[in-house]
Design a protein that fits this description.
One of its GO terms (biological process) is fructose import across plasma membrane. By secondary structure, the chain is mostly helical. It contains 24 helices and no strands. α2 crosses α8, α8 packs antiparallel against α17 and α17 packs parallel to α19. The chain is globular.
Length: 505
């Protein structure tokens, strides 16, 4: 017994003294990933995609409600305006939440700010359930605003929280959790809208709010999760609490965590003015110009690559390929399933392949496929096999998008920015994402009417320009600390991060 105890002690000392301990998956790390993915990120994707299926039913409700309460008989033009308000208020909420994300993440902490997003999401679900009973279009719009606000906060805060909890070797895998949740949410929204589930005429309030079941299950668990040790150490300057939370999330004794604490101390030494990074302050800091450009262009480019336009056209393309209306809907769900599957595969690929080759490969592939899709759509009636070519192009685009352009922009700010400006950097990136969504949502209908299939050439050109910019400036972040990445990018557009990166990778 004494020999066994001595052996354990010697092993403990050996690990401590030689830094052989390597952080990996732990109970709280896995729990945080699962709970935030299901309870925070999934509702964002659900609310992005679910409103399309019951659109006609919701418009009929709005027409009857306004006629009964205010004696307003909406014509087609005004109904389109009301519907646009219902759709776009979600994006307005998302932009607002992105701006507030930086403030809440630093004032309340990463975990508590995530709890706020869940409460807002629940409040939105309550509005959806009650709006028809109350005969209130206003409640429906308020609900969309609340879930949009929750969505903006989620995409700004959750990836940052998860990557700060993770050890360096797992930041990529944890960073994929948020976009994977969003993709699953879009897929769940499409599936729940099927006629056999919640697609019946009287079920649309329940369809809009069914995601709340997951939020209710996950919200209590959020309270027991650890706070981000990096936030506690760098922002709150509470070393003792930071060490306790770090020990809890790693599941090991504090004595084994000296290496991670040394990295935190080095980050504090490299940036002592940790209290000044509001969004505006980050924008004015010349050292953060290139990191902000990389994060914002990748986040905005995720939307301006035309992913929502491709999904919009998918059912039309599948119908022209000979599928029935029901089968075309199943094929569109299949596109969502591809998105989810690629996100799962990315959990394996990111730690092994790196961010730069996956992102650049995804951008370049999307550029080519979008151009081919434009050609296929332009000549879709010219030959009998062209609808099949367009269908293959749609499926290929969704696949390529999922291997880089979809998931990586969500979390890359957490690997480029140090802890102090990270909240502001994540907020700017999230704002760019929602802004790109708004731009495509407002411009695409007009583009579709005026230039038709050539709309995809516009998306191809934008994605091509994005590819060139990131090929010149985007550094590989795998295996580097945020402090090292910041040093590579601190000269703005005069930075040459690849000269160093290429030697290290």
């Amino acid at each position: 017994m004494v020999v066994e105890k001595s052996k354990v002690t010697n092993e403990h000392q050996h690990l401590t003294q030689t830094h052989d301990y390597k952080a990996g998956w732990s109970f709280y790390l896995v729990l945080a990933g699962v709970v935030t993915t299901l309870g925070s990120s999934l509702p964002v994707g659900f609310n992005i995609g679910v409103v399309n299926t019951p659109a006609e039913l919701i418009q009929q409700f709005c027409y009857e409600s306004l006629l009964e309460r205010f004696n307003i008989d909406l014509d087609e033009t005004w109904m389109n305006i009301v519907w646009s308000a219902i759709v776009s208020i979600f994006i307005v909420g998302g932009c607002t939440g992105s701006i507030l994300g930086s403030v809440l993440a630093d004032k309340l902490g990463r975990k508590n700010a995530t709890i706020v997003t869940s409460i807002l999401s629940l409040a939105g679900a309550i509005m959806f359930v009650l709006c028809r009973t109350a005969n209130s279009v206003e409640m429906l719009i308020l609900g969309r605003l609340l879930v949009g606000l929750s969505g903006g906060l989620t995409t700004s805060i959750v990836p940052m929280y998860l990557t700060e909890l993770a050890p360096p070797s797992l930041t990529g895998a944890m960073g994929v959790a948020c976009p994977m949740g969003v993709n699953v949410g879009v897929l769940v929204g499409q599936v729940m809208g099927l006629q056999d589930l919640l697609g019946k005429p009287n079920d649309w309030p329940y369809l809009l709010s069914v995601y709340a079941l997951l939020v209710i299950i996950c919200l209590p668990v959020l309270f027991i999760l650890p706070e981000s040790p990096k936030y506690l150490y760098v922002v709150k300057k509470n070393e003792a609490e930071s060490l306790r939370e770090l020990s809890r999330v790693r599941g090991v004794s504090p004595s084994l965590l000296t290496e991670e604490l040394d990295e935190l101390r080095e980050e504090v030494r490299s940036n002592n003015d940790t209290d000044r990074y509001s969004m505006w302050a980050a924008l004015k800091d010349r050292r953060l110009l290139l990191p902000l450009l990389l994060v914002c262009t990748s986040q905005a480019g995720q939307q301006t690559s035309g992913i929502n336009a491709v999904f919009y056209y998918s059912q039309t393309i599948f119908r022209q390929a000979g599928l029935s209306r029901e089968n075309a809907q199943f094929a569109t769900i299949g596109c969502g399933a591809i998105n989810v599957c690629t996100a799962v595969i990315m959990v394996y690929l990111l730690p092994r392949t790196g961010r730069r080759p996956l992102l650049l490969g995804s951008m370049f592939g999307a550029t080519i496929i979008l151009a081919l899709l434009a050609a296929a759509m332009r000549f879709i009636d010219a030959v009998s096999w062209m609808p099949y070519a367009a269908m293959i192009a749609v499926l290929s685009y969704v696949l390529v998008y999922g291997f880089g352009l979809g998931p990586i922009p969500y979390f890359i700010a957490s690997e480029i920015f140090e802890v102090a400006p990270r909240g502001a950097g994540m907020a700017w990136g999230s704002l760019a994402n929602w802004g790109g969504n708004f731009l495509v949502g407002t411009c695409f209908p007009s583009m579709r009417d005026y230039i038709g299939a050539y709309s995809f050439l516009v998306f191809s050109a934008v994605t091509g320009a994005l590819t060139v910019f990131h090929k010149l400036y985007f550094p590989e972040t795998r295996g580097k600390t945020p402090t090292q990445v910041t040093e590579l990018c601190n000269n703005g557009l005069r930075s040459r991060p690849l000269a160093v990166t290429n030697r290290n990778v």
